[in-house]
Amino acid sequence: MILNPVGSAPTVNTGASANAANDPAAMQDRFLKLLVAQLNNQDPMNPLDNAQMTTQMAQINTVTGLQTLNLTMQTMAEQFSTMQQLQGITMIGRSVLTEGDRLAVSDKGEGKGAFVLGGAATDVKVEVVTPGGVVVDTIEMGAQDKGRHDFEWDASKYSGNQADLRFRVTASTKEGAVPSMALMQSQVVATGSSSGALTLTLANGETVGYANIHGVL
């Protein structure tokens, strides 16, 4: 005889009743009550054998363990989300580096940007360009090692819209071109979340995931 701890008619639990239905201790208590009731009302000529009882108890212990694990993981996920939000708040007002070629120009006319080299280069130059690709100025940076590098440019001598300026990096050795990635600088003005992940809203209007931040200045 196999004990079935699930009732024959489905029910819908809401509020406190739903919490009780998912509570591991409450589930185990209901199971034990059903087991005692079955033992009290079993057929004396066909009693529940030890193997069947052991199987039933093992099943309820497995279900109880899974419910406990689910509740623990849910609690950890909520705590992690809260920690992310607190971490995001500390980022407001800080400048960060994200992938992009927009030149950041301060109120004092200082243009700033950065780039990452995939390998050492003997000749590196940064070209400041308009949205149409016209070169405004060139910054010769000479030989540079693999990794991230920052640069500055005096944007006060440019009479056009400084907010539209872009930059591009060219790096090479005698063997050929060296791969590079442009990084733009912007200030964090707000934080949020998307699919449980922290997002940052930047002063340039873009929203990026925290995982896409390449540096904090």
Automatic annotation (TrEMBL):
Keywords: Bacterial flagellum biogenesis, Cell projection, Cilium, Flagellum. One of its GO terms (biological process) is bacterial-type flagellum organization. Residues 107-168 form the FlgD/Vpr Ig-like domain. Pfam families: FlgD, FlgD_ig, FLgD_tudor. The keyword Nucleotidyltransferase does not apply. Belongs to the FlgD family. This is Basal-body rod modification protein FlgD.
